[in-house]
Input
Amino acid sequence: MFEIVTPPEPDKIIRLMGMFAADPRAGKVDLGVGVYRSPEGKTPVMAAVKSAEQRIWAAQESKSYVGLRGDLGFLDAMRRLILGESVSPDRVAAAGTPGGTGAVRQVLETVHRLNPSATVWISDPTWPNHPAIIDHLGQKRKTYRYYDAATGGIDRGGMLADLAKTARGDLILLHGCCHNPTGADLRSDDWREIAAICARTGAIPFVDMAYQGFGAGLEEDAQGLRHLATTLPEVLIAASCSKNFGLYRERVGVVLIVTDGKAAAEGVLAGMNRQNFAFPPDHGARVVQEILGDQALDAVWRNELERMRRAMEGNRRALAEALRAETGSDRFGFLAAHRGMFSLIGATPEQVERLRAEHGIYLVGDGRMNIAGLTQDTIPRVAQAIAQVLA
Ligand code: PMP
Output
């Protein structure tokens, strides 16, 4: 069966991980793969997660199936975390999924089934898995202008002009915060404009929330999404606990659908889970539920998350400062204004390759840098190399 198949191109980030592992140089720096790293360069199990796992281990008496949408306590805790008090629980359908990717997939496949002629509008650029999943499903897609490389900010006029062309039932895929790969986030007036456009054209916002708590703070990062939820009849949300709970490999994600048709939406989501994997993974979801449901653990978690967020902000400031000193210009000042784990540094693929070959500095081919991969020790060297190669 497989003799006639050309294997698909390996994912560029996965390929980069392999190259980094095989690189024998002692001073190599991994700024590629999108995992948080502490100032010591570790991706630790968060303290609250360890405690929750201990409690679960001590108390859990069965690993029998739970339900097609996963554990209802987890879903409710995630609804609160993401939507707060912005909408009544009666208007929110929810289902657990394997990670944020699973949530994105379930949302897009649901739309593909219910409205195969809808166009999904994605930002230029976006996380490569967005177009990959849309294409895999055979749904139509278009891009809207988003990033302005000249300023390191958003091309607001271009974005709003493109989104005004959306049709009823189209999906507008937005990053809830910490835009991947650019690091340039929507401001509150952008969210308000987008809500107004959706109200006018009948397009439905689909918010991918993979980094809540990594941008400006847990509550702040959800404000744009909550504005859409309070003003529009329908909002689709795919959220991930990979980053903010450090539960990457446990695969914890959730689909939330803000709608007046809650019962129908939950039925559709349960059916969609059943077709694709039946029951969503439970362990990580239970860890999240345990943390969010216990005041003391919740406080420990929020503290650690805030420390991580501040460490990334510190890296941004330090790198921007080091680059100012190296280049004598404010060319890279946008790095300090960006939010979350990623920024595009404005390197061509050839420059990215030179950074790797000559300096052992690994970035994704589009010039995306994982800010969390920097440390106080590596920042001067990385700044020197960038200033030299991008001169
Ligand atoms: N959406 C975006 C924009 C992301 O960057 C990621 C993580 N790379 C995800 C979704 C999903 O992450 P995961 O499946 O690991 O939860």
User: Anything to note?
Assistant: The two ends are 51 Å apart (CA to CA).
